[in-house]
């Protein structure tokens, strides 16, 4: 027995164990302290970014001397503005910098001024060409689809491409027009649309020339729409290079976008069907993918590659594996090619569709004959996307190229993706419309559209989608916003077609 006041000795083995445990705890404490420091740094960076974003938003909202569009409060999303389409010019202006507009000389014609799309961030990346206009390049804007995943905000008679979904005073089709006009001018910018949208398109795009609005009698998917434009434009200009860009997509980084299109045009001149590949920001299951092949080694298009293959929309695990390889890009459905080359591909892979479009194009400029031939041939044309019709089989033969691009892109396919495009206070839902009509308590995330004009109040609910229109109310979650299309079908089957 140890004498009083004397501590018992600890065996050497136990001492080593104790020292090891103590050292382990010290390491854990150091790791925790380091994590706390990193988290504090991240919080500081986030706070600084929020302040910077708030400053930029104020500059955009209050300081754009050259943007004559209506204010944010004047267009509550579901009401589409119809201002005159701006004349896009040659010198780039950034909405984040102050500019003095050049004085126009009275002795000659006014110098052009380029006004960027208000729906792009206009990142100051280098544009590698001396002039933006590309001779012989024709823009084709297919304006179709009802945007059913954005119902009841988007309707068949007033689809999403006619809506101002970002409260910046321009609809999606107007922003598409703004973005592409520097490359082609209004004389070489065409729109393909259904008869029900012609009036609205003409109101929103007053600079669109009448003979450049191609009206298709009914929806036949992208191959018929783009093929019709190619067939007509090939007769007007046999050397035409066409670029097809959907009317309802969002793009950020206008200069990077224009640079990618300019590269795609150079590749298209070498008899390729060229797509523009979007760098994926996450393993999306809602987009198709393009697998990059070998570099083409073209001096005029240093980023261009062959397309190894197209991939359909994958499941989450497959999408993650695509991202991990670094050789996949999102397929945004943008195609650039010679009009005559597209028709050659169409004749090879879909001869019946080619022949039908050729007969329509032969009489297109004779309005009376056009209507007769359209009514006879159009209903019999195959309904098929351009990817399935020509892009996929041509890629297998090494005839499709891709220009990997760096600009931001979103097809605004559902309310979840729309919510990501709208500003919001911390832990608050996004509001598309008058924020004074939305009162919340302990609500985080989600998106609210107060379209009916009545007050919407939310308590203790997160990530909801609430779309309150005068005739319809939709309530779902962001996680299930892709399934709104199913709800639209059930609504139609239940006899509410007039609300679609």
TrEMBL record:
Gene3D superfamilies, alphabetized: Spore Coat Polysaccharide Biosynthesis Protein SpsA, Chain A
Keywords in alphabetical order: Coiled coil
Ranges in a coiled coil: 32-59
InterPro entries in the cross-refs: GMPP_N (IPR049577), ManC/GMP-like_b-helix (IPR054566), Mannose-6P_isomerase_type2 (IPR051161), NTP_transferase_dom (IPR005835), Nucleotide-diphossugar_trans (IPR029044)
Domain MannoseP isomerase/GMP-like beta-helix: 446-490
GO terms, biological process: GDP-mannose biosynthetic process
Annotated Nucleotidyl transferase domain residues: 140-422
UniProt keyword Coiled coil, yes or no: yes
GO molecular function: mannose-1-phosphate guanylyltransferase (GTP) activity
UniProt name for this protein: Mannose-1-phosphate guanylyltransferase
């Amino acid at each position: 027995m140890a004498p009083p006041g004397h501590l018992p000795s600890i065996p050497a083995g136990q001492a080593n164990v104790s020292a090891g445990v103590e050292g382990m705890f010290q390491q854990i404490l150091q790791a925790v302290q380091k994590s706390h420091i990193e988290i504090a740094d991240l919080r500081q960076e986030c706070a600084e970014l929020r302040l910077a974003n708030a400053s930029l938003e104020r500059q955009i909202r209050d300081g754009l001397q050259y943007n004559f569009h209506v204010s944010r409060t004047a267009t509550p999303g579901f009401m589409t503005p119809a201002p005159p389409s701006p004349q896009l010019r040659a010198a780039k202006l950034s909405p984040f910098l102050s500019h003095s507009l050049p004085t126009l000389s009275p002795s000659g014609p006014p110098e052009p001024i380029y006004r960027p799309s208000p729906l792009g961030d206009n990142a100051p990346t280098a544009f590698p060409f001396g002039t933006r206009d590309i001779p012989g390049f024709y823009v084709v804007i297919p304006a179709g689809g009802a945007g059913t995943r954005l119902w009841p905000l988007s309707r068949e008679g007033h689809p999403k491409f006619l809506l101002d979904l970002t409260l910046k005073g321009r609809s999606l089709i107007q922003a598409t027009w703004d973005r592409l006009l520097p490359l082609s001018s209004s004389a070489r910018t065409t729109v393909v649309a259904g008869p029900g949208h012609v009036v609205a398109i003409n109101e929103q795009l007053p600079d669109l020339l009448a003979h450049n609005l191609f009206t298709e009698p009914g929806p036949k998917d992208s191959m018929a729409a783009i093929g019709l434009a190619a067939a007509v434009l090939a007769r007007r200009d046999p050397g035409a290079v066409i670029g097809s860009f959907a009317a309802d997509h969002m793009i950020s980084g206008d200069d990077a976008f224009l640079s990618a299109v300019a590269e795609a045009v150079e590749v298209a001149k070498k008899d390729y069907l060229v797509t523009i590949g979007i760098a994926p920001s996450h393993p999306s299951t809602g987009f198709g993918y393009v697998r990059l092949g070998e570099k083409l080694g073209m001096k005029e298009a240093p980023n261009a590659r062959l397309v190894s293959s197209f991939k359909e929309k994958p499941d989450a695990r497959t999408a993650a594996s695509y991202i991990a390889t670094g050789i996949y890009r999102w397929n945004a459905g943008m195609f650039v090619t010679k009009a005559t080359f597209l028709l050659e591909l169409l004749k090879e892979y879909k001869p019946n569709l080619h022949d039908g479009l050729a007969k329509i194009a032969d009489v297109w400029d004779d309005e009376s004959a056009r209507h007769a031939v359209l009514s006879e041939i159009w209903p019999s044309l195959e309904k098929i996307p351009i990817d399935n019709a020509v892009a996929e089989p041509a890629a297998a033969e090494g005839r499709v190229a891709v220009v990997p691009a760096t600009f931001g892109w979103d097809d605004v396919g559902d309310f979840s993706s729309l919510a990501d495009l709208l500003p919001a206070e911390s832990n608050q839902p996004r509001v598309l419309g008058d924020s004074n009509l939305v009162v919340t308590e302990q609500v985080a995330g989600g998106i609210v559209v107060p379209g009916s004009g009545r007050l919407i109040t939310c308590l203790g609910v997160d990530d909801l989608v609430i779309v309150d229109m005068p005739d319809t109310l939709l309530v779902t979650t962001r996680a299930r916003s892709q399934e709104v299309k199913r709800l639209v079908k059930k609504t139609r089957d239940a006899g509410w077609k007039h609300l679609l």
